[in-house]
Amino acid sequence: MMQCTDVHDRYLFRLITKKAILYTEMVTTGAIIHGSCLDQLNFNAEIEHPVAVQLGGSDPNDLSVCAKICDELGYDEINLNVGCPSERVQKGAFGACLMNEPNLVSECIAAMQESTDLPITVKCRIGVDNHDDYEFLHNFTSQIVRTNTPTLIVHARVAILKGLSPRQNRTVPPLKYEHVYMLKNDFPDLEIVINGGIKSVSESLEHLERVDGVMLGRAAYDNPMITSGVDEKVFNEAPQSHDRKEILSNYLRYCMDQYELGISYNRTLKHVFGINKGMPHARQYRKLILESMQKENLSSNINNLVSMV
Ligand SMILES: Cc1cc2nc3c(=O)[nH]c(=O)nc-3n(C[C@H](O)[C@H](O)[C@H](O)COP(=O)(O)O)c2cc1C
């Protein structure tokens, strides 16, 4: 998620779950090739795996070059964005508008497969504009499975390319989970991951009766602790930690270390605004996080903050 799931946010999530696959925000091929995004591609190899990078682009050659770079950087998966509806992305002729061009998507996947052995996966919508029928999604999928892409992540809403902002495109078009379930029935060998509006591990478990995976976006970003049951309940593994205080204390110490390395608190502390969402001291806690960002005085506030969660 752009402006959200950066290297610091992923550090936080690795304190909560060691098994969930973490995705970078979309990084465009242009930004990689022109070298303006080294920061965005940075990841912490010691703790972050499994971690996937999401690329935005539609030029097979550029995507092939970028896939190779991401492979060399050590990512575990490369995901192609075919779901972003923003005007900027439409101008670049990639993102959701690529759902109208399944042949080009296949070419892009094939070009990336030439330059890396990493799995090349796709994240798409259930349709675009008035192509909101299941047949459209089925046709799109029939074309791209020929590339042997192993996984399709589907945000269960259409993208409306004209007239809705990206934000509205995440709320206004109705969720149609049924279309994603139908896709799994029709393409049983393709790993189908469902996304959109899913708010908890228990909701995820219900979807997992019908599909292979679940992707959480906003609910997890806004309230990271909702993912604390993932390792146990989804992967049948011992949990990383359920202890909010321990997680926060570790993360805040990480923020102080990053600060020493020149990373501002604005970049690191924003990820823990929601760590005690809905709890008694949530408001005072958020105020103190804000103060720690503005006055750069986290070291004086750390004990207080931990005591509030
Ligand atoms: C601030 C923000 C940034 C996002 N950036 C991306 C992105 O870079 N790539 C992507 O595939 N989806 C992006 N999304 C969409 C989410 O990944 C997800 O598909 C969508 O929000 C629906 O899932 P959710 O209801 O679990 O959030 C973004 C969403 C938000 C709110």
UniProtKB/TrEMBL annotation:
CDD domains: DUS_like_FMN (cd02801). GO terms for molecular function: flavin adenine dinucleotide binding; tRNA binding; tRNA dihydrouridine synthase activity. Its EC number is 1.3.1.-. Keywords: Flavoprotein, FMN, NADP, Nucleotide-binding, Oxidoreductase, RNA-binding, tRNA processing, tRNA-binding. FMN binds at residues 54, 123, 155, 195-197, 217-218. Belongs to the dus family. PANTHER family: FMN-LINKED OXIDOREDUCTASES SUPERFAMILY PROTEIN. This is tRNA-dihydrouridine synthase. It comes from SAR86 cluster bacterium BACL1 MAG-120920-bin57.
